[in-house]
Amino acid sequence: MAAISDGDVRTIRPSRGFTGFGLAELWRHRELVLVLARRNVTVRYKQTQLGVLWAVLQPLFTMVVFTFVFHRVAKISSQGIPYPIFAYAALLPWALFATSLAQSSVSIVGASSIIGKVYFPRMAIPVATVLAALVDFAVASVVLVGMMVYFGVFPSPEAALVLPLFMLLAVTTALGAGLWFSALNVRYRDVQYTVPFLIQIGLFITPVAYPATLVNEPLRTILAINPMTGVVEGFRWALLDVDTPPGLLLLVSCAVSLTMLVSGALFFRRMERTFADVI
Question: With a threshold of 0.85, does the pTM exceed it?
Fold first, then answer.
């Protein structure tokens, strides 16, 4: 957006051509991003009896189902790690991604009442959604710590040091996908119905319930095109000290995630010029 000042009158017009990613403007509005993130958390759990405990119950119950179906019945290997913690350690980053994508994909349309009235960097809305999902992640991580103590599974100091990098990769993937789908949903409202279906499919093509080592090459490398593959395998390696580091899977996932974020930001910036008109 371009602002033209004429005395006491300020006119805001859509920018033309390539205007960058708008990171400087987004940083100037960082307090707004935090306010929006806090609002998202408050609205999500408003008038609920359990509040943020829902952030724990969802991955916890999914872990119980996976343990029965994939471990007890299907006898899926967990690489020598107790299966409950093996599955829960993967469900944490997956839940962060799924929640971020589901909420951010409808975030722009959901904020239509303010987009048409007030100017601010529109990217603040999906960014705030991802930040709000980090609150759920932090709450659910408490259960993982308890499980690690119960099962006596602890990460090596070297592996634990790189855990923030896998967190960053998860956030990058979630934000990149969120930027794409939130912009598309403004013009094509079918997106809000498509995203939940894609999340369901993604849960099973991501090695959450099973280790990636069960998939033979070259399918394993193809599996890494899904950037959450590297995230999930990285979390397990860093937290549970499994024997197989993510290696090539992580490199492929990083490349795809970064491409998704950059392309998503460019697409979002291009489409945001018409948000107020289309919504």
Answer: yes
